[in-house]
Amino acid sequence: MQELTVATPGGSYPVLVGAGARHRLTELIPVGARRAAIVTQASIPWEVDAGIEQRRFTIGQGEESKDLETVEELCRGFARWGLTRADVVVGVGGGMVTDVAGFAAAVYHRGVAVVHVSTTLLGQVDAAIGGKTGVNLPEGKNLVGAFWQPAAVLCDVETLETLPPREYRSGLGEMAKYAFLGVDRLRDRSLEDAVAACVACKAAFVADDEREQGRRALLNYGHTLAHALETAGGYDLRHGEAVGLGLRFAARLARRLGRVGDGEVADHDTLVDAYELPAALPPGVDDQELLTVMARDKKATTGLTFVLDGPRGLEVVPGVPAEAVAATLAELRP
After folding, report:
1. 3-dehydroquinate synthase N-terminal domain: which residues (predicted)?
2. Which of 163, 177, 256, 262 could be a cystine partner for 168, CB 3.0 to 4.6 Å?
């Protein structure tokens, strides 16, 4: 079992990574909490014991349930049960669950403690860490949310053994991003060490920039296109698969803008290929729709904005010409 620390201006919290981490939940429930609202999904087989009175609140599957209506239903359920500000919400599941549970905790009574028990690879390496919570609008992903740091995060690698292969590969797409954020020898590490290394990398970004006012935005590498593909909808893509395409796209866009050469593009393709992620955009992609959605990305303050590689490493690059983006999308057509 590895214990890491995420340090923020508001305080620090532990992240436990290892087999059986979910069984340590009772140790990490905030002192004084009398009730735990367990937010999860019907498809998640993992039970947890908070060591105090608890009730299960089940939310729907898929991105269509990651919305304000779900948050309202949760908060009303908390109120009917009598959950107080002194109690705790426990999110058990993947990134969608921890995003929704965290946001509900952030807004219910203007802030209730939350602990995450992450059960997917994507959640363990990224979504459950760092306190970014939120839900989608029809206009874009994660456009409504709050920064609300958890009291603790449990990353139980045992839960990854039951993931369907495609869901596991989706997590690898999110993991691949960290290779370009400074995590060395990612594919040579054991699963526990790889998860812990990604957590440590994200923790460093969060400690440096908790509210994404600067450097933390680099954690969105590959996500601008990924979120646009997910928002446009109708494409058979998981989040990590979309991120893999986003990484390929970002490397090619950086090359088109003269920031990197062919070698960097090949490095991106080699890693994404090794994780068996898609190599081409889905058929029938509407460029104009993607451009419209990407312009609404939460990083965008001055025109189309992307995290791109370059001579000084990854940087947020605003004002990217739409023509360059469209031409780069064409490079990834099947």
Report:
1. 57-169
2. 163
**pTM, entire model:** 0.92
Give 119's contacts (C-beta < 8 A, 6+ positions apart).
22, 44, 46, 92, 93, 94, 156, 159, 160
The pLDDT tens digits of the residues spanning 159-197 come to 999 999 999 999 999 999 999 999 999 999 999 999 999
Q: Is residue 75 part of a domain?
A: yes
pLDDT in tens, 200-242: 999 999 998 888 888 999 999 999 999 999 988 778 899 999 9
Residue 187's contacts (CB-CB under 8 Å, 6 or more residues apart) are 194, 271, 274
Q: Where in the sequence is the domain holding 307, given as residue range(s)?
A: 221-331
What is the three-class DSSP state of 295?
Answer: helix
